[in-house]
């Protein structure tokens, strides 16, 4: 009970941080910061990596992550894990509400570098604003949830746990970076998505009674 309470409180605190950060973003005080970082990243990342980041972006859709989450829960054979799905989908409601309520246009088309002629149906949902980043939110959610499962697994020694952690972190970082390098989102969108996804993941973990 003690550990679950810590996860729950942590979730609430990070969500409050998300709300506070969202307010700061709404004041447009970080617009120049967003623009400068986007230009810097796009200048430093060569166009030959656009295809790789576009593939990464394609795997970050809600369809793919929902499948991954169902697979994880199916392998765990935990019926109560369905509540994790509810929280995961609930975070998307908050994401869409943020995009509908907070006027924060995404990068102009001249920044756009996605170069794969393939889109999942969710790509056609355009609320109007770009804050927070759904891809970043999903990546943070799955990464936190997977790391939780890895480190509470008693069958893995510490070395194997850290070995599994590396690709999870690298994949997540690549997803966050792809949002900016492809001109899909600003840095503040990514930060907001990370905060929302982390909060949702910790909330889901706080209801996990398997430890």
How would you classify the helix and strand content by structural class?
A: mainly alpha
Number of helices: 8
What's the gyration radius in Å?
17 Å
Q: Distance between termini?
A: 9 Å
Order of helices and strands: HHHHHHHH
Question: How much of the residues is beta strand, in percent?
Answer: under 5%
What overall geometry do the principal axes of the alpha carbons give? globular
Uncertain residue segments: none
Number of domains: 1
Fraction of residues in helix = 55-70%
Task: Produce a short descriptive summary.
The protein is an all-alpha fold and 211 residues long. 69% of the residues lie in helices and 0% in strands.
Model description:
- By secondary structure, this protein is mainly alpha-helical.
- Helices cover 69% and strands 0% of the residues.
- The chain contains eight helices and no strands.
- The protein has one domain.
- Helix 6 (134-151) runs antiparallel to helix 7 (158-181).
- The mean pLDDT is 89.
């Amino acid at each position: 009970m003690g550990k679950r309470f810590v996860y729950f409180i942590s979730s609430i605190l990070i969500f409050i941080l998300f709300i506070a950060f969202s307010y700061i973003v709404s004041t447009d005080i970080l617009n120049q910061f967003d623009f400068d970082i986007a230009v810097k990243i796009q200048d430093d990342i060569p166009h030959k990596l656009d295809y790789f980041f576009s593939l990464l972006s394609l795997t970050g859709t809600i369809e793919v992550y929902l499948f991954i989450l169902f697979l994880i829960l199916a392998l765990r054979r935990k019926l109560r894990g369905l509540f994790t799905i509810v929280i995961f989908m609930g975070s998307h409601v908050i994401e869409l509400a943020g995009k509908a309520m907070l006027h924060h246009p995404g990068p102009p088309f001249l920044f756009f570098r996605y170069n794969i002629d393939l889109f999942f149906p969710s790509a056609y949902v355009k609320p109007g604003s770009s804050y927070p980043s759904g891809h970043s939110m999903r990546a943070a959610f799955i990464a936190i949830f997977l790391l939780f499962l890895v480190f509470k697994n008693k069958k893995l020694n510490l070395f194997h746990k850290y070995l599994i952690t590396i690709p999870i972190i690298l994949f997540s970082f690549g997803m966050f970076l792809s949002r900016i390098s492809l001109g899909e989102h600003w840095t503040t969108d990514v930060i907001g998505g990370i905060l929302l996804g982390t909060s949702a993941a910790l909330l889901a973990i706080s209801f996990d009674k398997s430890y």
